[in-house]
Known about the structure:
Elements: E1 34-37, E2 43-47, E3 50-61, E4 72-76, E5 86-90, E6 94-98, E7 101-110, E8 122-133, E9 138-139, H1 151-158, E10 171-178
Antiparallel strand pairs: 1-2, 2-3, 3-10, 4-8, 5-10, 6-7, 7-8, 8-9
Amino acid sequence: MGTHSQNLVPGSDNTYDLGTTSARWKDLFLRHGVKLYDASGSIWELDYRGITRSGFEGTAALTPAALDNPDEVTITLPRYIGCDFVVSVSGARGSVTKNTTIYDIYPYWSAPIFACSPTVSAFTASVTWDVFRRTDNFAYTGNGHIRWNNLRQLCLDCGFSLDDIPTGLKTVHWIVRWPL
């Protein structure tokens, strides 16, 4: 077969395989960021996180929980994909100004390392909050808290209102990946 300097294209659409169940390729060397398309046109991407699929990443908004309850967001994936997937979550920092003092609020989102259900592909992301005074990076504490798991309690302890909290701070960014 030798070296090719052109695309490798089958002679007929949806007719030929690459390998068989008894004669398989040993290694496939690809660069990060390679995109693979399935029959539905969905994109699978191979990158440093493993294998991801478009449509299985997004954002979700937090509705702050009632006092004395942890803040959580439950996310159900667009369709059942089995139970062999990992979830990564993150969120952006936000700032609140109170009496000319700027406070930076950091959300620390977490989700299960491995999510599994026999009937639905879903996960729950939880969040804790830290508050720092920007001028000296002093960790704000209030009512005995250094870190909060409830945004309403954070607001009460720090003298903020929920309206003071930027919308982006209440948004979790999530991606589902399949381990290699």
